[in-house]
Design a protein that fits this description.
A hairpin with a 3-residue loop joins strand 1 and strand 2. This protein has about 210 residues and is α+β, with helices and mostly antiparallel strands. The protein is about 70% helix and about 10% strand.
């Protein structure tokens, strides 16, 4: 092989290797872009879920204050479901009554933390759960900041035995937490089952 042929071969090799490296880098960049886009979409879904909960929560609270007298009652299902108007200065179901300022500060802190770690939370917990829980927290926080109390209106009871009144935001928070717990338990159960199956399929060690 002449010197010129060797040079041409070397240049061709460099070009081929460069093309392979460029393809590898391009694939890596595209993968990162797709992951970022998926993460952004999940955060957007969480935000939309939160916005939906907030809107429904605030509308129902406004209608309650507008059309139901304070401590009044509208029966929807006799001996089971009423609409009422309760001013709750505590947490869900009336616990920690009179601690509105402390609870407002706590809610603000939780919302700030959720915003800071939104990508991690959405990835680990799920966009729907984060959105529903976040929307519920913000819905009640708006009441605390504007009114100094939270408007509760849903009264579930069995004859004279009443569950503490709650609202849409409370229900959203509870549902979100329950869904997360259910998913976590199911995931742990699945991992244990797969681990047991892998152990049973492994060949025994003989001496």
């Amino acid at each position: 092989m002449t010197l010129i042929e060797r040079v041409v071969a070397a240049v061709a090799g460099v070009i081929v290797q460069g093309d392979r490296d460029a393809r590898t880098v391009s694939a890596s960049v595209m993968t990162r872009l797709f992951r970022r886009r998926a993460a952004a979409d999940n955060v957007l879904r969480a935000g939309m879920s939160a916005a939906g909960i907030i809107v429904v929560d605030q509308i129902t609270k406004y209608l309650t204050r507008r059309y139901i007298p304070f401590n009044g009652r509208v029966t929807l299902i006799p001996n089971f479901l009423d609409l009422t108007y309760v001013r709750n200065t505590g947490a869900a179901w009336g616990i920690m009554g009179g601690w509105n300022s402390v609870l407002a500060l706590f809610s603000l802190t939780v919302v700030a933390v959720m915003c800071m770690y939104r990508h991690h939370l959405v990835r680990e917990v799920g966009a729907g759960v984060v959105g529903v829980v976040g929307g519920g927290i913000i819905g009640n926080l708006l009441d605390r900041l504007r009114l100094g109390w939270v408007t509760d209106m849903i009264d579930i009871h069995l004859f004279q035995y009443h569950w503490p009144a709650f609202n849409i935001a409370d229900a959203a928070i509870c549902i979100g937490v329950l869904v997360y717990v259910f998913r976590s338990v199911r995931s742990v159960s699945r991992e244990r089952r797969e681990s047991d199956e892998a152990s049973s399929d492994a060949p025994g060690v003989t001496g």
